[in-house]
Amino acid sequence: MTNIEFDEEGYLLDLSQWDENLAKSIAIKEGLELTEAHWEVLRVLRNFYEQFEVSPAMRPLVKAVTKELGADKGKSIYLMKLFPGSPPKLAAKIAGLPKPANCL
């Protein structure tokens, strides 16, 4: 088993080490149990990162979710329910992506 390293805030350092099992264990540490609704958003996030090489802040995340999953899911309230606190930060952490640049 490879040694998996995180930064001081809990973000994965080597993005290539991410897989769904790691996502589940990060989510558990954050007090979340991942449902299909979480996985949908995590897939959107990973696609966004693949395309733009940056983790989206809230507005771009909402736009990407709206585009891929529809207007009812592309709302900040929906994302807050799934990823409490700061959806872009928490979802990026679970998705094994860097912290969004303009999220405090």
UniProtKB/TrEMBL annotation:
The keyword Metal-binding belongs to this UniProt entry's keyword annotation: no
Pfam families (alphabetical): DsrC
Top EC group: transferase
Signal peptide: none
Gene3D superfamilies the UniProt entry points to: 3.30.1420.10, DsrC-like protein, C-terminal domain
Enzyme Commission identifier(s): 2.8.1.-
Protein name: Sulfurtransferase
Species per Swiss-Prot/TrEMBL record: Marinomonas ostreistagni
